[in-house]
Amino acid sequence: MTTTDGRVLALDLGTSSSRALVLTAGDAAPVPGALARHKISPTYGTGGSATIDLHEYVEGLLGCLDELQQNGHLDDIGAIVVSSQWHSIVALDNKGDALTPVVTWADTRSVHLDLGSSFDEHAFHARTGSWLHRLYWTRRIPWLLSEGSPAGFAGLPDLVIERLTGERVTSVSIASGTGTLDLATGEYDDEALEIAGVKADRLPSIVPTGWVAHLSAEYERRWPELVGVPVHPPTGDGAASNVGTGGYDETTAAVTVGTSAAVRVVHPIDGAPELPWELWRYRVDEKRAVTGMAFSAAGNLHAWLTGVLQLTSDEPTGVEIGGSRVIAIPFQAGTRPPATVPSGSGVYFGLSFDDTAADLLAASMQGASLEVDRGLRMLDSLFGRELSVVLGGGGIDASAWWRRCLTATFARPTTVCAEAEVGARGAAAVALGLSPQPGGEHLTPAKADVDRVAALRPRYERLRELAAQAAAV
Q: What is the pTM of this model?
């Protein structure tokens, strides 16, 4: 890996927005005012579709760079890095043009695979870090092949890199999120490709972390300030967010709350502990993996509920942590694998006429916190210690109540990352070999809050099981 004397231009390819921002060279801190954002509105359909218009997305991102240039923020750039959503896929024709929109992680369309009794999914999961789930290309590619005759497939970040540099490649980090990577070798997994029904030459080539390219002549003319600036391979947003919060070794779990939420630990790929069935594992770069659990309801749940309830405050004002009588099971967007609870399965238990909008909001935020806590305790067990915890992401930055709620639910101190742009910061850290520190406030859980959550937990777990059973009916 290399460092840079210049500032860093970070491209953040999210589900709800694409952004371009400038970071300082030493600590990858956002330069004040040097951020441009293009809002994304995915299209959702009754058949389970959740897609993004590729042309609009890329043009919006290019417009962000134009905005930074107009405001004089593209001077003294020494590197271009990318943090991107995992799991997206686009079907391509034989000229490399898109046949489909960007199919996002939230899309539930795929094919059911019956591989017979000889298929060992536990061995497959241990090797690839994934399951035969609709989230991954092992089920998405057969579905896309059944819908037409694609010549190839790529993810959103692969196509953004191709648009900027002319080279269609992917990173070991992005490829690991497709469910088709052998984590140990860093190459496409033969069994996963056989299941998907494609050869490796129909997918983007995997380049090492140290690979760099440069902008094509078209974009060097458009942004002359970026001539000769190296473009680094993209990092999956989960891995980038972990590193960006300061959670970059096996002593620390990073909890990030954005559109969705996750709890993860970064650790060496060599000598990695055996992967439990309930957790996934992807790659950060050539030497590191990230193991964790993700949750489909977080910032999206908060935004939906504040809108539905027409709340004037984003905080559940007046409600004690763990104090709401209402129990909310946050399955509105279903569950991530290996659980199979479908979307539309959110539940409130214990409603009464004296409950307020703040009670409902608090119950949902508490439910999401308890879900994350389930993953944290699995990671504690896996790594043989009570992990330190850092909190980061837009949801963390926006809600002091949620920060305190998570801290009380975990029943341990937490450190809040001072920077909200953890994905961009982490992508810079991975590409350039940086070790960012959280730099934010330290929270100590209040005993009364911890006790209320502990008393609530058994009831939550019983009702959670009922909700999952009802969703399967």
A: 0.93
